[in-house]
Amino acid sequence: MILTHGVFVKHVLVEGDMPAVLKAPVMAVTLVYLPSDISQARKEKVSTLVGPFVHQKLDACADVKAAAFGWSVENDFPLFDREAGDKDTGTVFAAFVGWSSVDALKAFREANGDRGVFGKIGKMEKVTHSLTRLIQYREFGNSKVPSSTRRGKYLFAA
Question: Residue 98: pLDDT above 70?
Fold first, then answer.
Protein backbone atom coordinates (compact mmCIF):
# COMPACT_ATOMS: atom_id res chain seq x y z
CA MET A 1 0.00 0.00 0.00
CA ILE A 2 1.32 3.44 -0.90
CA LEU A 3 0.09 6.53 0.97
CA THR A 4 0.53 9.92 -0.65
CA HIS A 5 -0.32 13.40 0.56
CA GLY A 6 0.96 16.42 -1.32
CA VAL A 7 4.67 16.40 -0.54
CA PHE A 8 5.43 12.82 0.50
CA VAL A 9 5.03 9.18 -0.47
CA LYS A 10 5.11 6.53 2.27
CA HIS A 11 4.59 2.77 2.26
CA VAL A 12 2.65 0.44 4.53
CA LEU A 13 3.03 -3.36 4.48
CA VAL A 14 -0.59 -4.48 4.80
CA GLU A 15 -2.07 -7.76 6.01
CA GLY A 16 -5.68 -8.42 5.03
CA ASP A 17 -7.99 -7.91 2.09
CA MET A 18 -7.09 -4.38 0.98
CA PRO A 19 -8.88 -4.63 -2.40
CA ALA A 20 -12.14 -5.42 -0.57
CA VAL A 21 -11.57 -2.51 1.84
CA LEU A 22 -11.14 -0.17 -1.12
CA LYS A 23 -14.41 -1.42 -2.67
CA ALA A 24 -16.47 -0.66 0.45
CA PRO A 25 -18.74 2.42 0.41
CA VAL A 26 -16.84 3.91 3.40
CA MET A 27 -13.24 3.36 4.45
CA ALA A 28 -11.98 4.26 7.94
CA VAL A 29 -8.25 4.91 8.00
CA THR A 30 -6.59 4.99 11.42
CA LEU A 31 -2.94 5.95 11.84
CA VAL A 32 -1.34 5.26 15.22
CA TYR A 33 2.04 6.96 15.57
CA LEU A 34 4.71 5.29 17.67
CA PRO A 35 8.34 6.25 18.25
CA SER A 36 10.59 5.98 15.21
CA ASP A 37 12.89 3.58 17.05
CA ILE A 38 10.23 0.99 18.00
CA SER A 39 11.73 -2.51 17.87
CA GLN A 40 10.50 -5.34 15.68
CA ALA A 41 9.54 -7.28 18.82
CA ARG A 42 7.31 -4.40 20.01
CA LYS A 43 5.72 -4.16 16.55
CA GLU A 44 4.91 -7.87 16.67
CA LYS A 45 3.34 -7.43 20.11
CA VAL A 46 1.05 -4.67 18.77
CA SER A 47 0.17 -6.77 15.70
CA THR A 48 -0.78 -9.76 17.87
CA LEU A 49 -3.08 -7.49 19.88
CA VAL A 50 -4.86 -6.24 16.76
CA GLY A 51 -5.31 -9.64 15.07
CA PRO A 52 -7.80 -11.07 17.57
CA PHE A 53 -9.76 -7.79 17.60
CA VAL A 54 -10.13 -7.96 13.82
CA HIS A 55 -11.22 -11.60 13.88
CA GLN A 56 -13.49 -11.42 16.93
CA LYS A 57 -15.11 -8.00 16.63
CA LEU A 58 -14.82 -6.79 13.05
CA ASP A 59 -15.35 -10.12 11.29
CA ALA A 60 -18.49 -10.64 13.38
CA CYS A 61 -19.98 -7.30 12.30
CA ALA A 62 -22.15 -7.57 9.19
CA ASP A 63 -21.47 -3.92 8.33
CA VAL A 64 -17.72 -4.47 8.03
CA LYS A 65 -16.87 -5.36 4.44
CA ALA A 66 -13.17 -6.05 5.05
CA ALA A 67 -10.20 -4.99 7.19
CA ALA A 68 -6.47 -4.69 6.68
CA PHE A 69 -3.65 -3.41 8.86
CA GLY A 70 0.10 -3.08 8.88
CA TRP A 71 3.23 -1.07 9.62
CA SER A 72 4.87 1.79 7.81
CA VAL A 73 8.02 0.77 5.98
CA GLU A 74 9.66 4.09 6.75
CA ASN A 75 10.16 5.31 10.32
CA ASP A 76 9.75 8.99 9.42
CA PHE A 77 6.03 9.06 8.64
CA PRO A 78 4.83 12.72 8.82
CA LEU A 79 2.53 13.55 11.69
CA PHE A 80 -0.88 14.90 10.66
CA ASP A 81 -2.88 17.23 12.87
CA ARG A 82 -0.05 17.38 15.35
CA GLU A 83 -0.38 19.35 18.54
CA ALA A 84 2.22 21.50 20.25
CA GLY A 85 4.94 19.28 21.69
CA ASP A 86 4.33 16.36 19.29
CA LYS A 87 7.27 15.06 17.31
CA ASP A 88 7.16 15.67 13.54
CA THR A 89 7.47 12.02 12.48
CA GLY A 90 7.19 8.47 13.72
CA THR A 91 6.57 4.85 12.82
CA VAL A 92 2.93 4.23 11.92
CA PHE A 93 0.61 1.32 12.59
CA ALA A 94 -2.18 1.74 10.03
CA ALA A 95 -5.62 0.15 10.02
CA PHE A 96 -8.01 0.25 7.06
CA VAL A 97 -11.61 -0.89 7.58
CA GLY A 98 -14.28 -0.97 4.89
CA TRP A 99 -17.78 -0.18 6.19
CA SER A 100 -21.25 -0.30 4.67
CA SER A 101 -21.96 3.26 5.88
CA VAL A 102 -20.79 6.01 8.23
CA ASP A 103 -23.82 5.30 10.45
CA ALA A 104 -22.76 1.65 10.75
CA LEU A 105 -19.30 2.72 11.91
CA LYS A 106 -20.80 5.11 14.48
CA ALA A 107 -23.12 2.38 15.80
CA PHE A 108 -20.18 -0.05 16.10
CA ARG A 109 -18.11 2.52 18.02
CA GLU A 110 -20.99 3.26 20.40
CA ALA A 111 -21.52 -0.45 21.06
CA ASN A 112 -17.82 -1.36 21.41
CA GLY A 113 -16.17 1.74 22.83
CA ASP A 114 -14.88 4.57 20.73
CA ARG A 115 -11.18 3.69 20.72
CA GLY A 116 -11.39 -0.09 21.06
CA VAL A 117 -8.14 -1.81 20.24
CA PHE A 118 -6.32 1.46 19.59
CA GLY A 119 -6.83 2.47 23.20
CA LYS A 120 -5.21 -0.82 24.22
CA ILE A 121 -2.20 -0.08 22.01
CA GLY A 122 -1.83 3.26 23.79
CA LYS A 123 -1.74 1.50 27.16
CA MET A 124 1.07 -0.87 26.17
CA GLU A 125 3.16 1.34 23.87
CA LYS A 126 4.17 4.98 23.81
CA VAL A 127 1.72 6.31 21.25
CA THR A 128 2.80 9.78 20.19
CA HIS A 129 -0.33 10.57 18.18
CA SER A 130 -3.28 8.94 16.43
CA LEU A 131 -5.98 9.97 14.03
CA THR A 132 -8.84 8.46 12.05
CA ARG A 133 -10.21 9.71 8.75
CA LEU A 134 -13.26 8.47 6.89
CA ILE A 135 -13.36 8.33 3.13
CA GLN A 136 -16.81 7.94 1.67
CA TYR A 137 -17.05 6.91 -1.94
CA ARG A 138 -19.68 8.15 -4.34
CA GLU A 139 -20.66 6.73 -7.67
CA PHE A 140 -19.66 8.71 -10.74
CA GLY A 141 -20.74 6.88 -13.88
CA ASN A 142 -19.10 3.46 -13.67
CA SER A 143 -16.44 4.65 -11.22
CA LYS A 144 -16.21 5.24 -7.50
CA VAL A 145 -14.71 8.58 -6.53
CA PRO A 146 -13.43 9.22 -3.00
CA SER A 147 -15.13 12.02 -1.15
CA SER A 148 -13.28 12.64 2.11
CA THR A 149 -15.37 13.54 5.14
CA ARG A 150 -12.71 16.07 6.11
CA ARG A 151 -10.31 18.36 4.28
CA GLY A 152 -6.78 17.04 3.84
CA LYS A 153 -7.61 14.07 1.62
CA TYR A 154 -5.40 11.02 1.47
CA LEU A 155 -4.84 9.18 -1.77
CA PHE A 156 -4.36 5.41 -1.69
CA ALA A 157 -2.87 3.07 -4.22
CA ALA A 158 -2.78 -0.69 -3.68
Answer: yes
Q: What is the CATH number of the domain that holds 13?
A: 3.30.70.100
* Residue 157 near residue 78 (C-beta atoms within 8 A): no
* Average pLDDT value for residue range 18-43: 89
Residue 24: which of 96, 95, 108 has the closest Cα?
96
**C-beta neighbour count of 109 within 10 angstroms:** 14
* DSSP string over 65-83: EEEEEEEESSS-EEPSS--
* Apex 54 CA angle, 129 and 151, nearest 5: 40
| Domain total of the chain | 1
The domain containing residue 30 runs over which residues?
2-157
Q: Answer positive or negative: Cα dihedral of 122, 107, 30, 23.
A: positive
Neighbours of 128 (CB within 10 A): 19
Q: Is residue 35 a contact partner of residue 128, using CB atoms and an 8 Å limit?
A: yes
Instruction: Return the closest-CA partner of residue 147 out of 4, 30, 25, 10.
Output: 25
Q: Are 38 and 125 in contact (CB under 8 A)?
A: yes
The strand pair at 8-16 and 89-99 is best described as unpaired
Model confidence, pTM = 0.78
C-beta atoms surrounding 89 within 10 Å = 20
